[in-house]
Backbone:
């Protein structure tokens, strides 16, 4: 029982977004940060409910994540645009058909403008539009390191969707009742949280999911041209595990399954990279936020002038009353 309508709308928006966040982002987060992490090694595989944990493909989890994001940013957005074009027309057709059955033979020969507007579909607000844009913003920021083309596909989608929404709100929906609002409400806090989460997620993506840091450390320690890198990343399975004595798998482990010194050095480099990456990006964000003013200087001068004129008019009225 919220005290005001604004508090109710903000709470409702936050709950719906959390539900949609889990619904849309759980699979990419699983592929990016959990899939292939708890597989184990030969003779000691990790299991869950008696089944072996899922491993990434030969290309790595980053390729699978990029494929998944490509399907979302191209296929899903294309389907959404088709739905936004067809569904309003279907609703408008059903609305006109329902009104025609109610009016029957009493339909006027020359209907008036407000009667034609009444036949349109009632406007349900902008909640779904905001939700779609915020979810898209999350995809193009949280996982941009895995699929750098995501912002381009989002730009193309928004260019098309602007025209679809314009046609929908002008031709298919009734004119909505105007309401004044100071800002976009809790959506701004959600966007800000997503921007901070994206910095952390991209840092972990580059450090743990991609091969950028292992290659960099191998170049620094062994070979600058990466000679023998693939062979170095493969470990030998324990003896008598299979009929083939030299069975290999991708990991930095010894023959008995223990982690090598390179693994711990790489882990230290990864953690150091995450800390440095986050600090640098957050510093740049704060610097841009400080350099770019929230209110332009020309507008700020006009606001101050309006306040000055308002105070001057109030003082003159007080003198006249006295």
Residues:
């Amino acid at each position: 029982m919220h005290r005001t309508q604004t508090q109710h709308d903000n709470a409702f928006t936050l709950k719906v977004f959390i539900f949609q966040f889990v619904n849309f982002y759980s699979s990419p987060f699983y592929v990016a940060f959990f899939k292939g992490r708890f597989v184990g090694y030969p003779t000691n595989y990790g299991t869950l409910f008696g089944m072996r944990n899922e491993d990434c493909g030969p290309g790595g989890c980053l390729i699978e994540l990029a494929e998944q994001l490509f399907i979302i940013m191209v296929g899903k957005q294309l389907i959404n645009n088709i739905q936004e074009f067809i569904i309003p027309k279907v609703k408008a057709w059903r609305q006109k058909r329902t009104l025609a059955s109610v009016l029957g033979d009493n339909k006027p020969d020359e209907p008036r403008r407000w009667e034609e507007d009444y036949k349109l579909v009632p406007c349900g607000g902008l909640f779904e539009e905001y939700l779609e844009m915020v979810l898209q913003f999350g995809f193009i920021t949280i996982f941009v390191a895995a699929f750098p083309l995501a912002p381009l596909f989002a730009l193309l989608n928004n260019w098309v969707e602007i025209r679809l929404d314009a046609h929908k709100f002008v031709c298919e929906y009734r004119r909505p009742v105007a309401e004044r609002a100071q800002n976009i409400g809790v959506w701004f806090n959600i966007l800000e949280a997503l921007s901070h989460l994206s910095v952390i997620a991209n840092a972990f993506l580059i450090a743990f999911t991609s091969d950028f840091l292992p290659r960099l450390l191998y170049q620094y320690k062994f070979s600058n041209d990466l000679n023998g890198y693939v062979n170095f990343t493969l470990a030998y399975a324990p003896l008598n595990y299979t009929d083939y004595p030299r069975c290999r798998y991708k990991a930095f482990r010894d023959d008995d399954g223990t982690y090598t010194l390179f693994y711990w050095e790489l882990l230290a480099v990864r953690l150091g990279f995450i800390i440095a990456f986050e600090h640098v990006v957050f510093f740049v964000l704060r610097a841009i936020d400080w350099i770019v003013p929230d209110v332009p200087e020309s507008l700020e001068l006009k606001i101050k002038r309006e306040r000055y004129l308002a105070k001057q008019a109030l003082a003159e009225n007080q003198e006249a009353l006295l």
The two ends are 48 Å apart (CA to CA). Residues 61-103 form the longest helix (43 residues).
